[in-house]
Structure formats: C-alpha cells, structure tokens
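Sample 3 of the quickstart, ligand 5-O-phosphono-beta-D-ribofuranosylamine:
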Amino acid sequence: MKLGVLISGRGSNLEALLAAKSEGRLPKADFRVVVSNRAGAPGLDVARKFGVAARVVASSEYKGRRDDHDSAVSGILREHGCEAIILAGYMRVLGAAFVGDWRNRIVNIHPSLLPSFPGLDAQRQALEHGVKVSGCTVHFVDEGTDTGPIILQRTVPVLATDTEESLAARILVEEHGAIVEAIALLTENESNVAGRRAASPAEQV
Ligand code: GRF
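Result:
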C-alpha cells in the first residue's frame, strides 16, 4: 500500500514507522512521500535519512485558504500515487473536502485515550482533569477533531509526580508502538470500518 505521511514537527512517530519498515516489520507499507506544512520541520530530515521524498506546503503561505492548502497537499499525495495517509503530528485541521476525498484512508495518532481530551495539549488536559490512566489512540479521521473510528489504543499510568513533559514522554513510547501496529493492520487490509467501529476481520465487525 502506497502511503503518504503528513507532519508538522519533530517526526518521532514518522521515524518509528520508517525504522519499522527498514527492519522488515511493515512489509506491505510503501512510504512514498512526507509532506510538512512547516518549512524546517525536523521530520523532513528523518524522511530524507530513510530515502523518502520530503516536501513542504507551508501553511503560512495559505492564510485563510484552508481548502487551497489541502488541495496542494492532496496533489502531492496523488502525484506519488498514495492510497492512504498517516497524520504523524500534523498540527493542522483538514477541511471537509479533503476528509471526504480520502474517507477511511486517513489515520491519525493522538496522545490521549479518546474521546477524552481531543484537540491541543491533550497531556495537559489529562493532568488537569486528574485522570489516573492516559495513553494514545490511533483512529481514522472524520470531519470532527479527533472523533473518527478508533483503530487501537494503548494505556499508560498517570503518576502523582507527573509533569506535562514526563507524561508526554511516557505516552510517546506507546505512540511509537501503536502507530506501527495500526499501520501493519491497515496495510494488511485488516482494519475495516463499520459505523463507528474499526476492527480486524477476527473481531467480526
Ligand atoms: C505526538 O504526540 C502525536 O500524538 C501528536 O503530535 C505529536 C507528534 O510527535 N499528534 P512527533 O512529531 O511524531 O514526534
């Protein structure tokens, strides 16, 4: 399956995916292109290190023109033959037209146990709420913010001594495993969607 990855920054989830691929753990995944909405995102160098095309569509040049930005990104993904898209720290909301064009073919990773704490600063939201368990969620993208069908989740404890940074670091370790597992399912065609439920055939959805 030909894949495009959208990023905005560091790219550690991208690196987990490309490392898994290079180690033979994602045999059906073909990473074709990485697109960043920020020039200078460190994740662009991660892509280059693994020999994957790295492109920038700077959102700063598309102020107030979300659909035009989305179209430019879509154009690059189609140019590279992408069949599905992974949002790996893409800090920009996608418009309804983009989501409609790629329905059930966009996967996002979010650092909380959705539906709790969607949107920005998920780890801070979790700490402020006082939850004892948090984690990460990999889900298909729909028109809402972090609301689409859930593919899988991993949990971590929240400790009394946690800061936003220490909790984020603990969750990030699980993110790296979760995103690889979810993309393995997706590329093996074992992650179908029925209503709100995304599941493997073994789960008989
Ligand atoms: C991750 O915490 C991800 O869940 C969130 O943004 C962060 C991206 O980190 N959506 P990285 O760029 O993959 O290192």
